[in-house]
Amino acid sequence: MKRILPLILLLLLFLGSCATKKRTTHSKERKISVAASPRNSMEEAPDPVLETPENPAAASKINNIINTALTYSGVRYKYGGTTKKGMDCSGLLYVAFKKNDVDLPRVSSAMANEGKRIRVNQVEKGDLLFFKTRKGKKINHVGLVVAVENDDIKFIHASTSRGVIVSSLREGYWNYAFVKANRIL
Q1: Maximum CA extent, the chain
Q2: 3-state secondary structure of 130
Q3: String of DSSP letters for 36-88
Q4: Bridge partners of 168?
Q5: Helices of type H across 71-183
Q6: What letter would DSSP give residue 22?
Q7: Which one, of 169, 80, 79, lies nearest residue 130 by Cα?
Q8: Alpha carbon 96 to chain centroid, angstroms
Q9: Could you report the per-residue pLDDT of 67-107, keeping only the tens digit for each?
Q10: Is 70 helix (H, G, I), strand (E, B) or coil?
């Protein structure tokens, strides 16, 4: 038991940034709905911005950024990491955008000040989602939208417990922690 206690304390300290610790209080639960937007309905063609002929360069760049981020799927979480040996949430997006010639700040709270804020029902592939996973007012987690299917938003991010994964904004934890979305491109 004496050997395990320091490991537990070290693990708790490690979970401080980009934390994905589940909240146990359900009294403040909220639901974010993206179904109100006509572009997300089943009758509309998926992702019309990416299919717009007058903006093929942006569509191509967005797809390249997403594909770059997806190459890190399964990489373990490492605070401050920016390589295949380990990534944190902002490191993943910093690298994915940087490899495609788009400069972003290195930390999620600074990334939240970049681009244009958009409503959740306007979210498209390539947009950034920001979260507060701890008490306080500071944004401490970020993800990149990889797909919008009807009212489900899928995003890639680095989770402390599962590494680089694709999650859904429908998931209760992420839905509750969601703060805002920004469009960079």
Answers
A1: 64
A2: strand
A3: TSGGGSTTSPS-TTTT-TT-HHHHHHHHHHHHHHHTTTTPPB-TT-EETTEE-
A4: 154
A5: 89-98, 108-111, 172-177
A6: P
A7: 169
A8: 12
A9: 999 999 999 999 999 999 999 999 999 999 999 999 999 99
A10: helix
Amino acid in position 28: K
C-alpha torsion sign, points 154, 155, 159, 163: positive
Say if CB 165 and CB 159 are below 8 A apart.
yes
Of 88, 95, 70, the closest CA to residue 140 belongs to 88
Three-class SS state of 29: coil
pTM of the model: 0.74
Q: Along the 185 residues of the chain, how does pLDDT read in single tens digits?
A: 556 555 454 444 344 445 444 333 333 444 454 443 333 333 333 343 344 445 778 889 999 999 999 999 999 999 999 999 999 999 999 999 999 999 999 999 999 999 999 999 999 999 999 999 998 889 999 999 999 998 899 999 999 999 999 999 999 999 999 999 999 99
Contact between residue 19 and residue 141 where contact means Cβ atoms under 8 Å apart: yes
* Encoded tokens for 76: 């373990």
Cite the beta strand spans of the chain per DSSP E: 82-83, 86-87, 116-118, 128-131, 141-149, 152-159, 163-168, 178-183
Q: List residues with catalytic annotation.
A: 89, 141, 157
Integer CA distances (angstroms), 121 to 68, 84, 127, 144, 148, in order: 25, 33, 12, 15, 10
